[in-house]
Amino acid sequence: MDLVDLSFLAGVFVTLFVIIDPPGTIPIFLSLTGSMTAKQRSRAALVAVGVAMLIISTFALFGRFILDYMHISLPALQFSGGLLLLIIALQLLAGKEGEMAASDGVNVALVPLGTPLLGGPGAIVAMMLFVDQTGGRSDRIAALVIALVLMAVVMYSVMRFSGIIARLLGKGGVTLVTRIAGVLLAAISTQMIFDAVHSFLIGWGVVPG
After folding, report:
1. Who contacts 103 (Cβ-Cβ below 8 Å, separation ≥6)?
2. What is the Cα–Cα distance from 89 to 32, expressed in whole angstroms?
3. For residue 160, what are the CA distances in angstroms to 13, 59, 142, 205?
4. Three-state SS for 208?
5. Per-residue model confidence (pLDDT) at position 46
6. Are 172 and 61 in contact (CB under 8 A)?
7. Where are the beta strands (DSSP E) in the chain?
8. Which residues contact 173 (CB under 8 A, 6 or more apart)?
């Protein structure tokens, strides 16, 4: 048996990349860290990735136990994450991103960057499903860990070097990107809420699955 299941590793990485969408976080990251120095932006990126990895890893190991113990369904988790993102989107559209960037960026690194943007319901659910698919096989467990580490490197790199983009855009460009990010984030959050409600309706038998 190989030490690492490469096909499983590729599947996990691609799935997480699509769900988390690191390039798509660039406008939102710039919006929330536009007033920070390069050092503060780097620290915010590191904290955000650390928080996301901690959340995803925790739910990968204990997710089902946590949700069952607290009687929380996956749609409920998705719905709450959507609401949180919608609040952030409204603040971006209202030009209040400066208020969220208080405390040297620690706040925005935790919420919404660390969660629910990076370590959100989609990534959490995907990891919980992948853990089930490992079947206890060591080669698949190793692939899962490596894929998660690679994903962390990609997320940090994208946000760390977004400062170059900020310098190219200038202050006016960053403001424009902020408003665009607000619209995109509002759309993402609305879709999350819609999907959660749809799952609720299927569970209640109101609509067919």
Report:
1. none
2. 11
3. 20, 26, 27, 46
4. coil
5. 94
6. no
7. none
8. none
Q: For 15-54, how does the pLDDT look when each residue is reduced to its tens digit (9 = 90+)? A: 898 788 887 788 888 888 877 888 888 999 999 999 999 9
Cα–Cα distance measured from residue 198 to residue 196, given in angstroms and rounded to the nearest whole number? 5
Give me 31's structure tokens: 């919006």
Question: Would the CA dihedral through 186, 31, 169, 162 be positive or negative?
Answer: negative
Query: What's the DSSP call for residue 120?
Result: -
pLDDT, residue 103, reads 45
Residue type, 104: D
Buried b (16+ CB within 10 A) or exposed e, 139-172: bbbbbbeebbeebbebbbebbbebbeebeebeee
Q: Report the C-alpha gap between 9 and 17 in whole angstroms.
A: 12
Tell me how far apart the alpha carbons of residues 132 and 116 are, in angstroms, rounded to a whole number.
23
| pLDDT (mean) for 104-122 | 79
3-state secondary structure 20-61: HCHHHHHHHHHHHHCCCCHHHHHHHHHHHHHHHHHHHHHHHH
